[in-house]
Amino acid sequence: MTRYYVSHYFDFKNIGIFLLVSLIGLIAVLAIVLITAKLQVHRRLNYEGLDECNVAEITRRHRFREIGMIESFYEMTFSSTSVLLFLSLYYIIDARIPQAFFYWSKYQDFILLLFLILSVFFTGWLDRFLVPLEYLPPDQKSSVRLVSSFYIILILMYIKFIYDDSNYDALILYFVSLAIGRFVYFDFTVEDFISTISKLLKNLYLLILMGCYSGFVCWFGFHVGFLLTSNGVIVSTLLAHLFMDASIFVLDRTRLIRFVL
């Protein structure tokens, strides 16, 4: 069975086609982001009486905002991939390695917590070394990762209800608890709560774009038979996100975005 998966996923023709589709989907998403941002600044410049200096300043600030929106989407993808990587490992150990049952049943909660901590470090590696995100401040990264946690919950719920798979019930409860913990914690204040809600709503567009992008890539993968349900839907979803990361890397190396900003 392992040999079958290796030969299936390392078919370079299928890899090339799937990477191309992932890249096209990424370009479409970023085009939506850039067009929306440019229309906003164009409307502001047309409806406000501004002198030449103000126009230049607004244009400059808006360019940094566009870069920030793109890097926020990249961070959303990296964060989601990192969590899916360790959730897939959690699934494989739990469902496919019966020899580990005794230790797994005893320590699985601690192992899951360890995996989530490792996912934070892996996300940091991706956004520093794979594609450096130079314009994204720490507080925005934190907000994006909060949105990413809701995205993971949606994926797990989709698998549960669409594929009628109850193996992820504990994970759904765990992530819901983590998400709630970002809003309500031991020494939180009303101001902290409102600030967190505000940042979440401000970045809600990332959840919509990410859902559309990953939904399209996963649909295509399952439709053409490149992604398989037999090795676990969560694992196939991870593979789709790895191709999405590769698309970001390719697009970043081509420096195509710099020509349209």
UniProtKB/TrEMBL annotation:
Keywords, comma-separated and alphabetical: Membrane, Transmembrane, Transmembrane helix
Can you tell which superkingdom this protein's organism belongs to? Bacteria
Transmembrane intervals: 15-37, 73-93, 113-131, 143-159, 171-188, 200-222, 228-251
Q: What is this protein called?
A: CAAX protease self-immunity
Q: Which organism is it from?
A: Faecalicatena fissicatena
